[in-house]
Amino acid sequence: MSLTRKDVEGIAHLARLEITEAELSVYTDSLSKILSFVEQLAAAETADIEPMAHPLEGESQRLRPDVVTERDQHEKFQLNAAAVTGALYLVPKVIE
Amino acid sequence: MTLHTRSVAELAAGLARKEYSAVELAQHFLSRIERSNDALNAFVTVTPDRALADARAADEARAAGRAGPLTGVPLAHKDIFCTDGVRTACGSKMLDNFVAPYDATVVERLHAAGTVMLGKTNMDEFAMGSSNETSWYGPVKNPWDLRKVPGGSSGGSAAVVAARLAPVATGTDTGGSIRQPAALVGISGIKPTYGRVSRYGMIAFASSLDQAGIMAPSAEDCALFLAAMAGFDPRDSTSVDRPVPDYVAELDAPLAGVRIGVLKEFFAHGLEGETGALVQAAIDQYRALGARIVEVSCPNLPLSVPTYYVVAPAECSSNLSRFDGVRFGHRCKDPRDLMDLYKRSRGEGFGAEVKRRIMTGTYVLSAGYYDAYYLKAQKCRSLISADFKAAFEQVDLLIGPTSPSPAFNIGAKVDDPITMYLNDIYTIGANLAGLPAMSIPCGFDGALPVGLQLIGPHFGESRLLAAAHAYQRHTDFHRRVPAAYA
Questions:
Q1: ipTM
Q2: How many other β-carbons are positioned within 10 Å of the β-carbon of residue A63?
Q3: For position B73, what pLDDT does the model report?
Q4: How far is B396 from chain A, CA to nearest CA, in Å?
Q5: Which residue, B61, B205, B342, B360, could crosslink A16 as a Cys pair with Cβ 3.0–4.6 Å?
Q6: What CATH fold (topology level) applies to the domain B3-251+461-485?
Q7: Could you give the 3-state DSSP secondary structure of residue B14?
Q8: What is the pLDDT of residues B322-339, one digit of tens each?
């Protein structure tokens, strides 16, 4: 699998990553190599094989009742934010 | 006998005899960290005030007759575990300024057991790496040879235990991140069964593979700590609700008659000669100790590295989408708009390998490619898991090398991701199948340690630890300390 620079630009956009021109060259090369490497999976016979979503047989994600279990600690949590006002997190204006 | 070369069990016995206090023990290790950490770069945060406060509390608990088996034992936490009020950076510029607002369950349980936190250890960024070279804080050095890597991603935890800057350290293992560094620095490390130890408060990389574990000189030390870490946690939806066996009591289970399978695929091309010879000698020793050695095959195991490098990046691209520069983590300067804020915060905050994996994952999950890559890998994962299941119908444990070679030079593999990924060729299978596995030292190739890997069936930690302990009762590789740190 050989990706073009344009492909990698598209992937970076989907992943919301700004990458430099220099990085673009490096990733075009290394992502192409990684995809070629994983393509050996195509040769594995997997007809009638169920995809594995959980490593433990018979286990699945547990559900819990939809009730509030956390107490309000927003002031503590907001200490890690770059910009806040009151109980809100600030971002650049979204709606003109 | 020097304090820091004692095992956890011996240190705990000394505390119980009041040979030294928990405060004295903490001070001993803090002064060792002070002296050696600059050269090793193994701790990213040292917490002396917290250590001394924990130690005083441990001494008070002992005076009041409330001491448990780990009360007063110092430890280091991998910087992937959230520690309330202490920076938790996960090896990343993205979280360089992040002070965790709560404790991970592992941290909480070990604190409740009376352990003393010395600090947080360096690691590959978001646990993505096999050499500790992807850390924003720079590479950790291998205490056996400062030119060599300590392995990764739990490279800091491995180095602090090998240099005896801490008697024990927590780790996490998504594709070998406990076992490979344990092997490369000559200590013991266990990755428990998926779901055995809570992942709550452990920063997520690939949630269907991630598991917390412990790294220490001996299997007995690992058993003591795993006993305190394991068990059901309602806050982790993948935590398994089943009783935790008494790992310490079961350490002395006899090896006689235990069927150990030598995995044929682990001795194929890629394994270095001396590493293979030392692993073979350990297998011979197991036979001499009464184990029944048989050859087994997991024919789909060669698919494990490519399977992993689809599944893990896919999960990572999803998990790391939470780092958006809004509520915590790095935010770029003067964003033009919301898209610019997302893209530049993430572009600046993540390192090269993390970005590579996010993009790999984004691609394999994207429309038109999902079936060919992700779904195919999930099916291959089923094949690998079924192979292990069939193997465990014939044997009780599997045995082989942990890593294809001893520690390599810093810088040797950084420019070639595929070569770096192949370091994990023997460890990834256990993660894909959710199996418990451990690495223990089995000899030296020149001055560098070599690791032996044991893999067990789901929830087979007791037998795994007992088999490792039996070997360590007849060998002293796990007691060796690099001369500069003895």
A1: 0.96
A2: 7
A3: 98
A4: 18
A5: B342
A6: Amidase signature (AS) enzymes (3.90.1300)
A7: helix
A8: 999 999 999 999 999 999
